[in-house]
Specification:
10 helices, six-stranded mixed β-sheet, ABC_transporter-like_ATP-bd, ATP-binding, single chain, alpha/beta, ATP binding, about 25% strand
Length: about 260
């Protein structure tokens, strides 16, 4: 059984069909990319997978469980986690505090525990802080943990987005254009980080406009165009696929 099974997924917004009848599987421990020209339906597909948008029809099964109709926080608690984009929302928080937000997914405390600051709360908080320390060390942000998020460079803010998602203990991590705006060195560091996440057992699904990165890092690629799946396969197969070449030559290579 695949980790994620998407079957005949469709999303209509009024008279507009944004995604039509797409199906694909994601195997556990793989790095998979979802690509396509601007307006292909990638972001809408991500939104359905995370529970942000409810499909008009079709199925999403994760670890054998039906995810359709579940709210985003429930989907996240089941292990499908996406990067929290726009770290400017953390303007008043330090790097450490922002990363701690991700641990809400698994910290086992209730309101009375928090209000009473009891032993259970203290133990859970200690576990959360230890996990955050591990993540910030892994992402090379530990030395800047007391800085406000606004004090990070743009590239570091993109890494912080991943750190917050990592803190939620994802099984399947969805990355939405993680390399956008990064220079060559930062992109290489990002690639190494994604490899490390994969090696730790996390499955990766990413939208990315950097085709060089996609073809280097992906084990499987799914291609959308005008809301429909036009191809899927290995990077080599996708590179030589006539429908894919036509889609990009006809619409340019800028991602949505």
């Amino acid at each position: 059984m695949s980790l994620l099974e998407v079957r005949n997924l469709t999303k209509r917004f009024g008279g507009l069909t944004a995604v039509h009848d797409i199906s694909f599987d994601i195997e556990q421990g793989k790095i998979v990319s979802l690509i396509g020209p601007n307006g292909a339906g990638k972001t809408t597909t991500f939104s359905m997978l995370t529970g942000l948008v409810k499909p008009s029809s079709g199925g999403i099964h994760f670890q054998g469980k039906n995810m359709v109709g579940l709210p985003m926080h429930v989907v996240s608690s089941q292990g499908i986690v996406t990067t929290f984009q726009k770290t400017k929302v953390f303007t008043t928080l330090t790097v450490e505090e922002a990363t701690l937000i991700g641990t809400y997914n698994w910290v086992n405390t209730r309101l009375p525990d928090i209000l009473l600051h009891n032993k259970k709360f203290c133990l859970e908080e200690q576990k959360a802080r230890e996990r955050v320390k591990e993540i910030l060390q892994y992402t090379n942000l530990y030395e800047k943990r007391k800085l406000k998020c606004t004090g990070l460079s743009y590239g570091e803010q993109r890494i912080l987005e991943i750190a917050v998602a990592m803190a939620a203990n994802p099984v399947l991590l969805l990355l939405d254009e993680p390399a956008a705006g990064l220079n060559h060195t930062e992109s290489q560091d990002l690639m190494n980080m994604i490899y490390g996440l994969r090696d730790s057992g996390i499955t990766i699904l990413l939208i990315e406009h950097d085709m060089s990165l996609v073809m280097k890092i992906s084990q499987h690629v799914v291609v959308l165009n005008f809301g429909e799946k036009i191809a899927e396969g290995t990077p080599a197969e996708i590179t030589n696929n006539e429908k894919v070449i036509e889609a990009y030559l006809g619409a340019g290579v800028e991602e949505e």
